[in-house]
Design goal:
Helix content is 54%, strand content 7%. It is mainly alpha-helical and 147 residues long. Bound molecules: zinc ion.
Length: 147
């Protein structure tokens, strides 16, 4: 991990304060930019805008126009997990689906993607629970308003 301060897990249901959550996003931004700049030329893709925020439901996403979005909570996961999400989203710049061609590409640039997926399945929920309660409530409310 790049930042030893952040490599802890919440104990007794501890959550980030809003300040800590903002600090996490701020720390995550240059790390995602760095990982994207590392993988994009190798994979011969050119992503658009990179957005980093905390999210309850997604680790990453890719829009039709090639903008990428990453969940800052991945900073608390092992580096391989963060990298695997970066490569996953970059693969969507080639294939906007989860076809066999998509997975062929993902496997080519991130062969251990299944281990990373398993880690997120096992531990992802506890990372999301670290978000301040206010954020969760506000997001649910917003979803309800527009959804
Ligand atoms: Zn995907």
């Amino acid at each position: 991990m790049q930042d030893p301060e952040l490599t802890y897990y919440p104990k007794d249901g501890k959550r980030f304060t809003e300040e800590e959550r903002k600090a996490l996003v701020k720390k995550a931004r240059p790390i995602f930019l760095e990982r994207v700049s590392y993988y994009a030329p190798l994979m011969k893709v050119a992503p658009g805008r990179i957005t980093v925020r905390t999210q309850k439901t997604r680790w990453g996403s890719c829009t039709q126009d090639g903008n990428l979005n990453f969940n800052a909570l991945l900073l608390l996961a092992p580096q391989e997990v963060l990298d695997s999400v970066v490569v996953h989203e970059l693969c969507h710049l080639k294939y906007m689906n989860h076809s066999k061609y998509f997975y062929f590409e993902l496997k080519r640039f991130y062969p251990e993607y299944k281990q990373a997926q398993a880690w997120l399945k096992e531990n992802g929920g506890s990372l999301i629970k670290m978000l301040p309660k206010e954020t969760l409530r506000r997001k649910r409310h917003r979803f309800w308003l527009f959804g």
